[in-house]
Amino acid sequence: MNDYLARFSESPASFKKSVTFLLVAWVCHPIFIYSLFWAEDSVTGSDKAIMKMAVVSLCLCLLHLLIKKWARALVVVGNTFIILNDFFYFSVTPRNTISTMLCVTVVLCTIVGTYWLFVKDSRAYFTQVNPKMEPPEIPDSNAGSNRPR
Asked: Which of 74-78, 97-101, 107-111 has the highest mean pLDDT?
């Protein structure tokens, strides 16, 4: 765990901004879903769905902090689904001021956090932390001297 904290402390400012904005978005996402139904009877039946949203948000956060190239791609896909999900809920359910503010917060923080994830410094940091491993060259037994057989 200390290795990840050390890598995070050495990371560029753009990566730290990305983590901050995306963390805010991922925390606000399940709260937004809950805020749509908080005064309704349906919230008692939707606690499993809200818990799933919280687990997805937590998993995206942990994957992002792994600082792996595949995790960055998965975070972008997860962010896309979160935005689509929030727009869907926002369009089909009655809204209140709190849910509107939370939806705007989730969407804006997700977009800004994803932007900071693709800034040149962040991309370079992901490449530096995860260098491409070239497979060792295996000499071909048929190659070599051209002696007649």
From this structure: 107-111
Q: Are 60 and 80 in contact (CB under 8 A)?
A: no
CB distance 1 to 85 below 8 Å: no
pLDDT for 104: 92
**What token pair was written down for 121?**
């410094």
Q: How far is C-alpha 105 from the geometric centre of its chain's CA atoms?
A: 16
In whole angstroms, what is the distance from residue 34 CA to residue 53 CA? 10
d(CA 70, CA 76): 10
Query: What is the distance between the alpha carbons of residues 5 and 11, in angstroms, rounded to a whole number?
Result: 10
Q: What pLDDT does 110 receive?
A: 93
Q: Distance of CA 1 to CAs 8, 27, 62, 122, Å?
A: 11, 22, 12, 21
